[in-house]
Amino acid sequence: MAKITYIEPSGTRHEVEADNGSTVMETAIKHMVPGIEAECGGALACATCHVYVDDAWTDVVGQPSAMEEDMLDFAYEVQPNSRLSCQIKISDAVDGLVVKVPERQA
Ligand code: FES
């Protein structure tokens, strides 16, 4: 289990418990966090699960793969800490992770 915090553009925070082996995207959908659309269901075929990883967590979460980078080209207002949340696996290592939801998805 890991606690994940999603922060909406308005500043509203959603702190939820996530199951190991699931993803940051699946956890957001399960807990109905607004702003994560995940149109492709986690197949790395859209960019609608885009999040910004909190600066304190970028090293832990790591960099996107080449394929994820390609999909991020379609995301709205990409920043250096942008990731597709379906590609971030939940494990004890990300307990406490904070991500921000963008103003809108692509
Ligand atoms: Fe489509 Fe993440 S849900 S790329």
Question: What does this protein look like?
Answer:
This protein is of the alpha+beta class. The chain has one domain: Beta-grasp domain (Ubiquitin-like (UB roll)), CATH 3.10.20.30. The chain has three helices and five strands; from the N terminus they run ββαβααββ. It has helices spanning 24-30, 58-61, 66-72; strands at residues 2-7, 13-18, 50-53, 82-84, 98-100. The protein has a five-stranded mixed beta sheet with strand order 2-1-5-3-4. Strand 1 (2-7) and strand 2 form a beta hairpin. The N and C termini lie far apart (30 Å). The mean pLDDT is 97. Bound molecules: FE2/S2 (inorganic) cluster. FE2/S2 (inorganic) cluster binds at residues 25, 38-40, 42-46, 48-49, 71, 84, 86.
CATH architectural arrangement = Roll
Name every ligand kind in the structure.
FE2/S2 (inorganic) cluster
> Helices and strands, in N-to-C order?
EEHEHHEE
Strand content: 15-25%
Number of helices: 3
CATH class: Alpha Beta
User: How would a textbook summarize the main sheet?
Assistant: 5 strands, mixed
- Low-confidence stretches at least 5 residues in length (pLDDT < 50)? none
CATH fold-level topology: Ubiquitin-like (UB roll)
Percent helix range: 10-25%
Shape: globular
**Overall pLDDT level:** 97
Radius of gyration: 12 Å
Content-based structural category: alpha+beta
Q: How do the strands line up in the largest sheet?
A: 2-1-5-3-4
Count of the domains: 1
CATH superfamily: Beta-grasp domain
- Termini separation (Å)? 30 Å
Number of strands: 5
